[in-house]
Amino acid sequence: MKVAIIGGGAAGFFSAIAVKENYPSAEVTIFEKSTKLLAKVKVSGGGRCNVTNACDSLDELCKAYPRGGKSLKKLFLRFSNKDTINWFKSRGVALKTQDDQCVFPKSNDSQSIIDCLMNETKRLKITIKISSSVSAIQGLDNQLILSFLNEENQLFDKVIVATGGSPKRSGFEWLEKLNHEIENPVPSLFTFNMPQESITSLMGIAVPQTMVGIQGTKLKSNGALLVTHWGMSGPAILKLSAFGARILSDLNYQFTLQVNWVNQQNNELVAKEIQQIIDNNPQKQLTSIRPFGLPTRLWEYLLARIQFAQDKKWNQLGNKGLNKLVNLLTNDEYKVSGKTTFKEEFVTCGGISLENIDLKTMQSNVCKNLYYAGEVVDIDAITGGYNFQGAWTTGFIAGELK
User: Fold this and answer.
1) Residue 344 clears pLDDT 60, i.e. is over it
2) For residues 337 and 179, is the Cβ–Cβ distance under 8 A?
3) Do both 301 and 356 map to the same domain?
4) Which CATH number belongs to the domain containing residue 51 in this structure?
């Protein structure tokens, strides 16, 4: 049996390895159009590679996928995040789990993951061809013909497409010609640009627990927020961008971000905390005590934002001042104008519609013997190792060639 894997990324390698382990006599070839293999693995997580997430339950795991979460649940039952951890450990890759449940190689170097995958392909005698670009797929009886840009056509019994996401719909046209329905691609994980906002002067400040939302929508997320020289980033913002990918695209990335700096929905509790500070420290200056452990520079910036003098004393706030402060801490607003996407690690929502895929096997419903794995399908996740988990799981299932 001849099997082609189109795409030399995480999903491509994992599905190739799975095919060869399931069918040892199969002739398996990975075709990568560029000269770089596992490029996204190399740069992800700041070069450390966030392999997966160690969250405990499948429900929790599925919640990390704005698109495809429900569909993935049955697949995760067959190859979960725990299976990923065991897979790499059993092949000699030492892993570590951080407090935030993100799993990295102990070496803190993505090369450990790359070396493991490369060694497996070598051990299993999987052929790898770089600078080999597939331009079309065509069915012929029970086989598939692959057309290449600079090579002769080749015939295969099974083909797995693992080409990753594409920022433009044109990147999916060659698959659309096979009658696949394409969900329009738009950026998913990105940070918010705030060219008009002075908060960018606080670049580098991180607040561990915030709640953020988009005004006029039901979109909300929480987590750490990082102030950057262009606007805001961090897990809370990236999660919001993932779940709001299509809505924010429709808004042309022009909207108002609401920030709850203290991650506390109950304003009465925030007011109670402030009142306690007033009762215990009436003669102290506002700058001397930071409520909810806010970073000093941020606290001073917020006080200036509502024009409270830094030498003002806590007992001079009054009810009006107290309410103003509570509102600022729980419902601060910033104008967003544009986004920043990290090109090397870009994630898109969109791709091959899940309606066109048998989610028990990852085989196409419209083209026999054609399978899909990874981000080429309309599945994407928030940060934290979930996108790679999607690649490992779909690659493993596709590699069963059922």
Assistant:
1) no
2) no
3) no
4) 3.50.50.60
Strand, helix or coil at 372? strand
- At residue 373, the pLDDT reads 98
Per the structure, the count of domains in the chain is: 2
- The answer to whether the CB of 324 falls within 8 A of the CB of 306 is yes
Whether residue 330 is found in the same domain as residue 362: no
Q: Across all residues in the chain, what is the average pLDDT?
A: 96
Q: Are 325 and 270 in contact (CB under 8 A)?
A: no
CB 358, CB 75: distance < 8 Å: no
Q: Which of 143, 123, 158, 161 is nearest to 21 (CA)?
A: 123
Domain range for 356 is: 2-187+345-398
Assess contact for 396 and 167: CB atoms under 8 A.
no
The number of helices, as runs of H, and strands, as runs of E, in the chain is 13, 22
In this model, does residue 287 exceed pLDDT 80? Answer: yes
Bridge partners, 257 (sequence order): 214, 334
- Asked if the model's pLDDT at residue 235 lies above 80, the reply is yes
**Residues recorded for the chain:** 402
| pLDDT at residue 129 tops 70 | yes
